[in-house]
Amino acid sequence: MTDTPSYGFDTLQVHAGARPDPATGARQTPIYQTTAYVFRDAEHAAALFNLQEVGFIYSRLTNPTVAVLQERMATLEGGAGAVCCSSGHGAQIMALFPLMAPGCNVVVSTRLYGGTVTQFSQTIRRFGWSAKFVDFDDEDAVRAAIDDDTRAIFCESIANPGGYITDLDAIGKIADDAGLPLIVDNTSATPYLCRPIEHGATLVVHSLTKFLTGNGTVTGGVVVDSGKFDWSASGKFPSLSEPEPAYHGLKFHETFGPLAFTFHGIAIGLRDLGMTLNPQAAHYTLMGIETLSLRMRKHCENAERVAGWLEGHEAVKAVTYAGLPSSPWHDRMSRICPKGAGGIFTVALRDGYEACVKFVDSLELFSHVANLGDTRSLVIHSASTTHRQLTPEQQEAAGAAPDVVRISIGIEDADDLIRDLDQALAKSARSAAA
Ligand SMILES: Cc1ncc(COP(=O)(O)O)c(C=O)c1O
Fold first, then answer.
1. Which domain holds residue 299?
2. Distance 89 CA to ligand 1 centre (A)
3. d(CA 162, CA 319)
4. pTM of the model
């Protein structure tokens, strides 16, 4: 499929970017397990290296299987182009890389995946970059955090683990007023539930590892570019607007227009940082995406039932699921992700940390793993694992306090999940009483 504006989501998730293999007619996208591609002649090779002709040179940069996934993700998000990377964390660095320079900062939400909090509060400082953490419900604070050195604003659409929903329209307006790109991590929502570009996002990043592949077989990431940001307007993004010395003085924005960020990501980002997605991972992810909407509908339906049941249980202090009418984010959900609040939420237990540990250890159908977005239901105690490197204040702000367990609801029978949760809660209550 090439020009597909009128197809619905369920059709695009199966077809976008893919066509029968021109060499063999293979209907499923083949895994092009090759490192390099034969040039027609020296002139062809030079044209490819000069970016005058689009084609395949070397699989660190581009690969036909990965290219199908890139086109599919750009289509599903409503973007102009996409660059796949070796992980979700890689995608975050790849999104910031063309925008930042030593001394620059990014204004970020306090409600982020714990690994992202660490990446932004610690690791990026080695590049001379920094992050300012702000409560994104305090719009004045977001505005106040922006200064002359700010180059982007970053948040998650549905935040991991707390299921908090960011008011993307409000943050998109702040970014727009400041002339800054808004980067949205849409991992927990997926483009089926939320399309951040429609709410003002410039770039959308994903961990492909989660719901998009959907079965715990892949580590991967992607950056989707809306193609809508004017990289030349403010002079703040010279790597895109000015002659780029790392690509013999090419002006990416002037040359590629709405595809400037995508070309930069491949020609410089993947070339020099090397965070490339392998073709086999792209193949598994493409197969996962074919059933994305079916799975997300079931994840949401199950999560709503299980969260509602947990909310009424005597051992439970609170459930954060935005799909519950009691959630402070319920109204926001109908605007930002009207088809559902996703499959992840947290549950706080009245008997605190020890009860959480006993609860997690007692579950039988749920798997205790550091992952989310699988067909299988998963559970983890965030404070002692994924959010362990954070201070108590950061854990609280991220929705990962010590009395909280994160649940990723799969696509099994909801009754079976509830039965398992019930027996584990009973065991954890008995051990607290002993
Ligand atoms: C919301 C979110 N973003 C990004 C990541 C990082 O993704 P990856 O593990 O693929 O690097 C994760 C991982 O759990 C995540 O939950």
1. 293-433
2. 6
3. 9
4. 0.97
